[in-house]
Amino acid sequence: MYAQLKDNCRAVQLTCEHLVNPIGIDVAHPRLNWRLDDQRQGALQQAYQILVGEDSIALGKGQKTIWDSGKQLSSAMLIPYSGKKLKPRTKYFWKVNVWDMAGHASTSAIASFETGMHDAAFWKGKWINDGKDIEERQAPYFRRVFKTNKKIKSARAYIAVAGLYELSINGQRVGDHRLDPMYTRYDRRTLYLTEDVTKFLQNGENAIGIILGNGWYNHQPLAVWNFDKAPWRDRPAFCLDLRIIYADGTEETIASDMQWKTNFGPITYNNIYTGEHYDARLERPDWDRPAFDDSSWRPVHSRNAPSAHLVSQQMAPIRLIKSYSPQSISKIDRNTYVFDMGQNMAGITKIKVKGRPGNVLHIRHGERLQANGRLDQSNIDVYYRGDKNKEPFQTDVLILSGRDDEFMAKFGYKGFRYVEISSSEPIALDKSTVTAYFMHSDVRPLGQLHTSSELVNRLWKATNNAYLSNLMGYPTDCPQREKNGWTGDGHLAIETALYNFDGLTVYEKWMADHRDEQRDDGVLPDIIPTGGWGYGTANGLDWTSTIAIIPWQVYQFYGDSHLLKECYSNIKRYVDYVDGISPSGLTSFGRGDWVPVKSQSNLELTSSVYFYVDATILASAAKLFGYELDQRKYEKLSMKIKEAINAKFLDRSKGIYSNGTQTELSVPLYWGVVPEDMKSKVADNLNRRVEETNFHLDVGVLGAKALLNALKDNGYGETAYKVAVQDTYPSWGWWIVNGATTLLENWDLKATRDISDNHMMFGEIGGWFFKSIGGMAPDPKQPGFKHVLLKPIFPHGLHESTTSYDSPYGKIVSEWKLRGDKVIYNIQIPANATATFYPPYNIRNGHAVQLEAGKHRLELELK
Prior knowledge:
Blueprint: E1 10-16, E2 23-25, E3 31-37, E4 47-53, H1 56-60, E5 65-68, E6 78-80, E7 91-99, E8 105-107, E9 111-115, E10 128-129, E11 140-148, E12 152-162, E13 164-169, E14 172-173, E15 190-196, E16 204-213, E17 237-246, E18 251-255, E19 261-264, E20 267-271, E21 275-279, E22 298-299, E23 301-302, E24 310-312, E25 318-324, E26 328-333, E27 336-354, E28 360-366, E29 368-369, E30 375-376, E31 395-399, E32 404-408, E33 414-423, E34 434-441, E35 447-451, H2 454-469, H3 487-492, H4 494-500, H5 504-517, H6 541-544, H7 546-558, H8 562-581, H9 603-625, H10 628-649, E36 650-651, E37 656-657, H11 662-670, H12 679-692, H13 701-713, H14 717-724, H15 732-737, H16 764-772, E38 776-778, E39 787-790, E40 800-807, E41 810-819, E42 822-829, E43 834-837, E44 849-851, E45 854-861
Parallel strand pairs: 2-9, 15-24, 21-31, 39-43
Antiparallel strand pairs: 1-3, 3-6, 4-5, 4-7, 7-8, 7-9, 10-23, 11-16, 11-19, 12-15, 12-17, 13-14, 13-16, 17-18, 19-22, 20-21, 25-34, 26-27, 27-32, 27-33, 27-34, 28-31, 28-33, 29-30, 35-40, 36-37, 38-39, 40-41, 41-42, 42-45, 43-44
Helix pairs in contact: 4-7, 4-16, 5-7, 7-8, 8-9, 9-10, 11-12, 11-13, 13-14, 13-16
């Protein structure tokens, strides 16, 4: 029955908790998701049936299921598990049967998910460390030898760490992740990972090795954010259960206990903010193999768990994604070389070198060069307060052994394009000495863009490079100067993030950080996570509206309301707090239009608009979840805020807000504050303001988010495009034509502060291309791109464009070419979805076109 449409319609790309065959799932009702592979016009899923079991062979036959959803007449493809209670540390298999538009059925391939610990009571391991003081510089190494004498069926290592870790078994590193576990508010939530280590074990003697790094848990150097004073700060520690299941059905757990031993190794210092120091003379070959002599190693110490909340880490891991060889090398003198890697990035460098034992190499990383060709760190080391001689900023220190040394930092990363290596004595280096690795959360690319404008193409790539450079398990502001999870940067770039990458798991983790950091009164810090810094007077709505905006956007892009519901009470506490301190509906709680070109915008106006945004999202969420009293309350509040803003700031006779800066006009337009009867007048004034600057920006971060959208959405797409592709100061293009490979923090290349060369706060441009040139957007009434809104622009100067987005339903393609006075528009809508095309103003006799799933070709006549 289920095989008859195998070639025409099938459920594919099965995921659990938005991950492929994950292990370590701890949630009671994991979300099961799939897509429909059906290329026919109008393809639709009429019904589905989910089957879950513990035996894959039996499941393939439709037998021994622990959950059978039954045939459900629904086109839904994201369903929470609703069967028997899942057991901990158990592998489950699942498949889905789907019925197509003709009522014919087919079955998917079998997918799996494996549960994690579920409860702290199942852990056998104890929390241990080396007992050293938090100021101890050397990284601790740990080992344990054990014996297996039976055939092994499977083995899992469950490891929770306060700090960072690298795990090895019998001399082999386990996995390819970096910087695990992810950074959290350690005293409120500790993450653990589940590693499949079956292939690493051997019959007979085995050895486990663990190295611990400080990460953000034990931040030793001083910086302005006071992480050295974090309430959780302590010497790194870990808890481990290595659970072995033998072929005869018996099991054994090798746990962290007092049988472990510890010592130091070649990592003499490590800090995620500054660098890593490595003395290759101290290497201990085979320290993580069974035969190693550990008689001189010390006993371990037990300690309390860092928090009572132990949570499985289920998200895209950090990996080394792309390698770069030097584009050029400059020999400054006999001891100093500078390497240009050709790309600004976040990552690490691998050094291969041979020299006299004891020779000290300083490997400095930065984004700029001085006039004399030496590395210039002056734009990024401004907030570091540590000892720059003993703990130099963004610098690894390598002491050579006299052998062929290879070094790559384990427990940190830098932001850089250039690498300067200075040696304590003359040394010969060449291009083979240095390899750079672009490192970031390994989120799957979703969006693709290619146009006839090389500037647009380069700007899109630079935006993605900046975004990925600032994605390390949470979104950051910059990968060098701070590495902080600035909330404003996070929500200002959220649409760019979601159009281009599958980052849902990262944002679910970061929103959990928000919930951990929120005070009882509802206030959030403006960097998250934080060691305590950021609960000041400016951490207001234009920044910490992340708590509302990001869950709402995730719901729009994925059609998954889970995160929004998880954050609902937090959004409510936040909005209630602001309501309490803002009885008039107006508030000045915020930072304002950060780093503007020239014009300053009214803080009360912009903060109040974000108050309106949050209240509106809260009311919409209340409606979605059926909270009728809350819905009425927050709809009333949002209307009160809107009326207060317009009463104070809108000059109806002139059609301007406040002083009429680009930001003051675009922010109310974009966020829906402008009364319907005033939109055209306000938009016209915004257009005039932009024309007065010869189509240049005069905004900071809030205006950069709103400006292009406000113009395009109100009939001025041509103006918006001219601003987007401007290549003289001030503009995004100005950075690109001056050699930038990422986005910058300041419009002015000669600015003296706020001058990181790898920043994401102006990153809306990358998402705007999808909304404008591609024209694609989710329909709030049918989120997750179940229904696609297509509202492209065909601007002068652009001859063709291909934009695609891999939505939850499949690939959406918006491709057009100009042919004389016609636009040839090719559209692809995935199975089980629909779309509406809305022609732009410059199309003759344009009218909305309803589109079913499949491929479409429209010939449009230009005016």
